[in-house]
Amino acid sequence: LALAKTELKQAKKEAKTKGSSDTKLQSLVERKKAAVKRCEEQLLNMEVQATDREENKQIALSTSKLNYLDPRISVAWCKNMEVPVEKIYNKTQREKFAWAIDMTEADFEF
Predict the structure, then answer these.
(1) Which residues form the active site (predicted)?
(2) Catalytic center residues
(3) Is the alpha carbon torsion for 61, 62, 64, 69 positive or negative?
(4) pTM of the full predicted structure?
(5) Which of 33, 35, 2 is nearest to 15 (CA)?
């Protein structure tokens, strides 16, 4: 980001000294502005990802899904909402819970 900003300053300085009539310099300035904006967006995205990663270290959703939820409830929800079971359970989990997938209907009540 710092490099992109310095390049933008240099391009603006060159455009100012040579005059505003040079279209090549003006397009260079626009490209440098776009590069700075892109770098800022990437930095923001990376900060958000780092925050998410840090916050999610404490959460183990797959453990809860496997050990504490009745698979029949999840399968019934999938069938009721027309969501493929593959979106909820991976292949190993589908093999483990094949009994629940086979026996559960969309109107299952616990």
Answers:
(1) 68 (o-(3'-phospho-dna)-tyrosine intermediate)
(2) 68
(3) positive
(4) 0.46
(5) 33
Residue type, 67: N
**What pLDDT, on a 0 to 100 scale, did the predictor assign at position 21?**
67
Distance in angstroms between the alpha carbons of the first and the last residue of the chain: 55
Encoded tokens for 45: 């995205």
CA distance 28 to 18: 13
CB 41 within 8 A of CB 6: no
Planar angle of CA 41, 47, 51, nearest 5 degrees: 145
Span 56-93, pLDDT tens digits: 776 666 677 777 788 999 999 999 999 999 998 999 99
Convert the pLDDT of each residue in 17-61 to its tens digit: 777 667 788 888 888 899 999 999 999 999 999 888 887 776 666
Q: Round the CA-based radius of gyration of the chain to a whole number and report it.
A: 27
- Type of residue at 1: L
Instruction: State the Cα–Cα distance between residues 94 and 100, nearest whole angstrom.
Output: 9
